[in-house]
Amino acid sequence: MEYNKWVANLEVGDEIEGFYILKTAQIKTSNSGKPFLAGVAADRSGAVDVKCWDYAGPLGAQDEGTVIKLRGSVTEYRGALQVILSRLRLAQADDQYNLGELVPVAPMDVDAGWRELLDMVDGLGDGDYRAVCRKVLERYGERFRSIPGGKSMHHSFVSGLLMHTLYMARIAEQLAGVYPEVVDRDLLVAGTILHDVAKCDEFVISPLGLVTEYSTKGQLLGHLVMGAQAVAEAAKELGIPEEKSILLQHMLLSHHGEPEFGAAVRPMCAEAELLSMIDLIDSRMEIYKETMEETEVGTFSKRVFALDKKIYRHK
Amino acid sequence: MEYNKWVANLEVGDEIEGFYILKTAQIKTSNSGKPFLAGVAADRSGAVDVKCWDYAGPLGAQDEGTVIKLRGSVTEYRGALQVILSRLRLAQADDQYNLGELVPVAPMDVDAGWRELLDMVDGLGDGDYRAVCRKVLERYGERFRSIPGGKSMHHSFVSGLLMHTLYMARIAEQLAGVYPEVVDRDLLVAGTILHDVAKCDEFVISPLGLVTEYSTKGQLLGHLVMGAQAVAEAAKELGIPEEKSILLQHMLLSHHGEPEFGAAVRPMCAEAELLSMIDLIDSRMEIYKETMEETEVGTFSKRVFALDKKIYRHK
Amino acid sequence: MEYNKWVANLEVGDEIEGFYILKTAQIKTSNSGKPFLAGVAADRSGAVDVKCWDYAGPLGAQDEGTVIKLRGSVTEYRGALQVILSRLRLAQADDQYNLGELVPVAPMDVDAGWRELLDMVDGLGDGDYRAVCRKVLERYGERFRSIPGGKSMHHSFVSGLLMHTLYMARIAEQLAGVYPEVVDRDLLVAGTILHDVAKCDEFVISPLGLVTEYSTKGQLLGHLVMGAQAVAEAAKELGIPEEKSILLQHMLLSHHGEPEFGAAVRPMCAEAELLSMIDLIDSRMEIYKETMEETEVGTFSKRVFALDKKIYRHK
Amino acid sequence: MEYNKWVANLEVGDEIEGFYILKTAQIKTSNSGKPFLAGVAADRSGAVDVKCWDYAGPLGAQDEGTVIKLRGSVTEYRGALQVILSRLRLAQADDQYNLGELVPVAPMDVDAGWRELLDMVDGLGDGDYRAVCRKVLERYGERFRSIPGGKSMHHSFVSGLLMHTLYMARIAEQLAGVYPEVVDRDLLVAGTILHDVAKCDEFVISPLGLVTEYSTKGQLLGHLVMGAQAVAEAAKELGIPEEKSILLQHMLLSHHGEPEFGAAVRPMCAEAELLSMIDLIDSRMEIYKETMEETEVGTFSKRVFALDKKIYRHK
Amino acid sequence: MEYNKWVANLEVGDEIEGFYILKTAQIKTSNSGKPFLAGVAADRSGAVDVKCWDYAGPLGAQDEGTVIKLRGSVTEYRGALQVILSRLRLAQADDQYNLGELVPVAPMDVDAGWRELLDMVDGLGDGDYRAVCRKVLERYGERFRSIPGGKSMHHSFVSGLLMHTLYMARIAEQLAGVYPEVVDRDLLVAGTILHDVAKCDEFVISPLGLVTEYSTKGQLLGHLVMGAQAVAEAAKELGIPEEKSILLQHMLLSHHGEPEFGAAVRPMCAEAELLSMIDLIDSRMEIYKETMEETEVGTFSKRVFALDKKIYRHK
Amino acid sequence: MEYNKWVANLEVGDEIEGFYILKTAQIKTSNSGKPFLAGVAADRSGAVDVKCWDYAGPLGAQDEGTVIKLRGSVTEYRGALQVILSRLRLAQADDQYNLGELVPVAPMDVDAGWRELLDMVDGLGDGDYRAVCRKVLERYGERFRSIPGGKSMHHSFVSGLLMHTLYMARIAEQLAGVYPEVVDRDLLVAGTILHDVAKCDEFVISPLGLVTEYSTKGQLLGHLVMGAQAVAEAAKELGIPEEKSILLQHMLLSHHGEPEFGAAVRPMCAEAELLSMIDLIDSRMEIYKETMEETEVGTFSKRVFALDKKIYRHK
Question: What is the nearest CA distance from D311 to chain F, expressed in angstroms?
Answer without folding.
Answer: 10
